[in-house]
Amino acid sequence: MSHVSREARKSCLRRDARTSIRKGDEVDSFFKISARNSTVGNEVIGGLTTFLAMAYIIAVNPSLLQTAGIPFDAALTATCVGAAVMTIAMGLVANRPIALASGMGINAIVAYTLCLGETAVDWRVAMAIIFLEGIVILILVLCGLRKAVMDAIPASLRHAIGIGIGLFIAFIGLKGGGIIVSDESTMLALGDLTSPTAIVSLIAILVAVALQVMNVKGALLISIVAATIAGIPLGVTALPSEWSFGLDFSTFAAPFQTVPGTDTMALVQVFLQPALLLFVFSLLMSDFFDTMGTVVAVGEQANFVDKDGNVEDIQPILTVDSVAAAAGGFFGASSITSFVESTSGAAAGARTGLSCVVVGVLFFVFAFFSPVIAMVTSAATCGALVVVGYLMLSDVVNVDWSKIEFAFPAFITILGIPMTYSITNGIGFGFISYCVIKIVQGKPGEVKPLMWVAALAFLVMFIVG
């Protein structure tokens, strides 16, 4: 009997092993992991790195939206669930390592301009504006306009967008880490390098660079974890004091909720106040071109951008991102958009949508454990962001610096993105300057029609503000 039992157990183990291999092959085939020279381990590490680099949104977005009148727990649920659903969708549909969550900047517009500014609309109406903007962008994508605009951009300008975002990411890391601070006389200055926050940031940079030099897998992820641990005795990393286990779905379907004190649906209120449609246009411009820059930047790191700056299989990426914008308004989480921090995961080895599935699952999990994520400070992620900035700057050799019509727009784009703290503004400067130079050269016919349309739209946006 004992011999039979042993044989039976061995047979079961062999069958389980074969089943596991088949499942592994299916995952590899679906996500094209081997075809893109990656491994499941690389995708998991890349996903973890991306998640930790962007996890600040779990704490920041609900706090911002709370000022707009949205209950904190509801905003937290909307933020995590929205990010999880749309990031997993990006992984399954587009199969690229681009994670999505509520966009910084747009959430501030929702809180401080739409809900607390001169417009002073109910937060449900603000979400209806976000929802409507997402629908418009989706229509533009399905019509092929968004891809056509990207195709109309000169190659040097496409590379410049990625380079500018690299500097922007490094700047965000240094600023968040207290190494660069604001100054009344010089605008920017070196921070106090002996402060606990700066010390943690320097540790993060040192670990990230050292491990990168040693070609250690997961170098950026390790740097974030190491800096977070180092921040505990220094008082930078705050240990969780309480836990939250509940979910609040009260913001879901916000555009279709009735505005308190009225009998009208929030979405209808947007059309009853035509001035609000201007916000649809301005938010559309921001979403449209921020995503364009982010996709190019991540593509450069994950090797799905060719030497001319063309992004492979861009249509599904743009489609998911456009749906995400509308979904953000529907969930009540502000506009959900592609996160430039995804470059950190790509730099850590992510090449497929499997990393997005990892990120999405983590967002679901940490909807219940947000205090753990609150431990990861901007100082802890400083090293990862600085290294990613360095890696993205290598693309500068692909800009044609010998011709001013390409070189100056590239320069002004690279300069404009970090200096104005806006990807959209930097791209706008590059587009407009390119068109102006072509007019001065007497070669306006060399500018593709959609570049003229985009440059004009940027000009209107800058004038109207």
From TrEMBL:
Compartments in which it is found: Cell membrane
Single GO MF annotation: purine nucleobase transmembrane transporter activity
Keyword annotations of the record: Cell membrane, Membrane, Transmembrane, Transmembrane helix, Transport
An annotated GO cellular component: plasma membrane
Transmembrane segments: 40-59, 74-93, 100-119, 125-145, 157-181, 193-211, 218-239, 266-284, 357-390, 410-437, 449-464
Keyword Membrane: yes
One family name in Pfam for this protein: Xan_ur_permease
Bilayer topology annotation: Multi-pass membrane protein
Principal location listed in the UniProt entry: membrane
Tagged with keyword Aminoacyl-tRNA synthetase: no
Family, similarity comment: Belongs to the nucleobase:cation symporter-2 (NCS2) (TC 2.A.40) family. Azg-like subfamily.
Name the UniProt record assigns to this protein: NCS2 family permease
Native source organism of the sequence: Slackia equolifaciens
